[in-house]
Amino acid sequence: MAKIIDGKQVAAEVRLNLKNEVQEFIAAGNRAPQLTAILIGNDPASQTYVNNKMKAAQEIGINSCTKHLPSSISEDELLKIIDELNENQSVDAILVQLPVPDHINERKICNAVKYEKDVDGFNEINVGRLALDMETIVPCTPLGVRQLLKYYNIETKGKNAVVVGRSKNVSLPIAMMLHTDKSHHDRSMDATVTICHRYTPRDELKRYCQLADIIVTATGIPGIIQADMVKPGACVIDIGITRIPIEGTDKTKLVGDVDFEAVKDIAGFITPVPGGVGPMTVAMLMKTTVKIAKNLAFKKL
Q1: How far apart are CA 180 and CA 127, in angstroms?
Q2: What 3-state DSSP class applies to 116?
Q3: Which of 53, 148, 196, 285 is disulfide-compatible with 200, CB 3.0–4.6 A?
Q4: pLDDT tens string 61-118
Q5: What pTM did the predictor assign?
Q6: Pairing between strand 93-96 and 192-196?
Q7: Is 53 among the residues known to form the active site?
Q8: In this structure, are residues 195 and 171 in contact, taking their beta carbons and an 8 Å threshold?
């Protein structure tokens, strides 16, 4: 029976530590860190995500605000708003809630956020610095995965890891962090990494996963990881999240990429969905906001 990795508990500890850190930062004569979110349109899921982030910020002592913009906003208008926030010295961290409307170029918007204020770590400069093992801002979900592995003392050095998924904001940075030489930076984990994805043939996916000491999956395909794919004792980190109907009812439920009920009897560690990686993403966003505020404050001294 696998040990359940409790993301809620770990996230609560991270937030408590951050609350104390922010209080000490302010007591030293600094203003409170400030986070600004840009929300475009009225997508219910995006609104919920942003509200959760703002609530967490308030609990920790981070000043926050949301710029709620209409879905009809032009790309040029959005770029102007981002530029104003970049130049506003009272704003530390900026996030643009994704996805953006189809008429707006997502990559252009991510690159428009000044990399020093890019709390999501999506600016190409931060992505490149991560690839080069340099100090940088790391996307929050990968950072949360690393925190969970560290918290539960799950060994990564010399282990086989399979990352299932190839998104540039989640899977790719996780793969980079897992494989990077620990001598370059303390966030790196010295694993041997294989990257698979939704189009990897099932037999091949099974073959790779059966060799893995650590499986990290982020495809959004319910049940893509089955019990026969998992090596006994392996650590399974499920980032996927999909809302599906409950058979015979008009209700829905959230599920991950992993057949949780079957895999938990084989794995050594496993994250639930919900309650696993999700809470850590928000906690790491707060941690990165505080980090950015300190970086900017020290540069001003």
Answers
A1: 14
A2: helix
A3: 196
A4: 999 999 999 999 999 999 999 999 999 999 999 999 999 999 999 999 999 999 999 9
A5: 0.94
A6: unpaired
A7: yes
A8: yes
Find, among 114, 112, 120, the residue nearest to 137 by Cα.
120
Strands of 143-282 (E only): list them. Answer: 160-164, 192-196, 214-217, 235-238, 242-245, 252-255, 269-270
Whether 35 contacts 119, CB under 8 Å: yes
Q: Is 97 annotated as catalytic?
A: yes
**Beta partners for 162?**
194, 215
Two structure tokens written together for 298: 């020290």
List 53, 117, 159, 231, catalytic entry: 53
Catalytic residue among 92, 118, 120, 259: 120
Through-space distance between the first and last CA atoms of the chain, rounded to whole angstroms: 53
| CB neighbour list of residue 139: distance below 8 Å, 6 or more residues apart | 120, 121, 122, 169, 170, 173
Strand partners, 192: 160
Q: How far apart are CA 96 and CA 171, in angstroms?
A: 19
| Residue owning tokens 């922010």 | 22
Choice among 34, 92, 97, 117 that is catalytic = 97
